[in-house]
Write a structure and sequence with these properties.
Radius of gyration: 24 Å
Strand content: 25-35%
Largest sheet: 5 strands, antiparallel
Distance between the termini: 60 Å
Mean pLDDT: 75
Number of helices: 1
Structural class: mainly beta
Number of domains: 1
Low-confidence stretches: 3-32, 39-53
């Protein structure tokens, strides 16, 4: 009989825990309104203005680069270091409406360098200083047609401060290389580009 009493007590305790758990969880409320938002990123920005070791400049595009496909440039480096080095670099887009030149039949990669700010950005910082909280959308039209959003697999953090923290910053290169094949334009061809950068916060 004593054994039965112990079982009844144990069952009663388990039932009480199961019933109480949803009530306790219901008291935890996330009041944040985090969402993807497009950053105003281009005003007055020229490729190469990203300063290594300096964070808190707001979330923005710091440069768009055409790099020679297969040339061996280091994607975990500030691409501004390659400007005018013809072995690796082809051209940079100097602003929101920039024009670039590339020799025909030359394979190239498109890279977008961005800064992410989880502390000082206005109107609202990104939630955490990590590549999971950035998204770059690319649209190519004309002789080359392509549309895609960056994923973590093509985003390379080459510098950070307090990574994954709410008071940190990151510098990231996003690689668009035509699924590993590089891009190429034929003689007389051209294409248009549009880049949009969003952060989650």
């Amino acid at each position: 009989m004593k054994g039965n009493i112990h079982w009844l007590v144990a069952i009663a305790v388990i039932v009480a825990i199961v019933v109480a758990t949803p009530v306790l969880l219901g008291q935890i409320v996330n009041t944040s309104a985090s969402q993807w938002r497009v950053s105003s990123v281009w005003a007055g920005v020229v490729p190469g203005e990203m300063t290594e070791g300096v964070f808190g400049n707001s979330s923005r595009i710091a440069g768009i680069y055409l790099m020679r496909y297969g040339s061996g440039y280091n994607i975990y480096e500030n691409l501004a270091n390659y400007v005018d080095n013809g072995t690796y670099w082809i051209d940079s887009i100097p602003g929101p409406d920039g024009t670039l030149t590339v020799e025909y039949e030359t394979l190239f990669d498109i890279l977008v360098a961005v800064e992410g700010d989880a502390e000082n950005d206005v109107p609202q910082p990104m939630a955490y200083a990590c590549k999971e909280n950035i998204k770059i959308q690319i649209l190519l039209t004309g002789e080359i047609t392509y549309s895609d959003n960056s994923t973590d697999l093509v985003e390379y953090v080459f510098e950070n401060d307090n990574y994954y923290q709410t008071n940190g910053g990151i510098h990231v290169n996003a690689l668009f290389d035509n699924n590993g094949n590089g891009w190429v334009v034929r003689a007389g061809q051209s294409f248009n580009w549009s880049i949009s950068y969003s952060v989650w916060g």
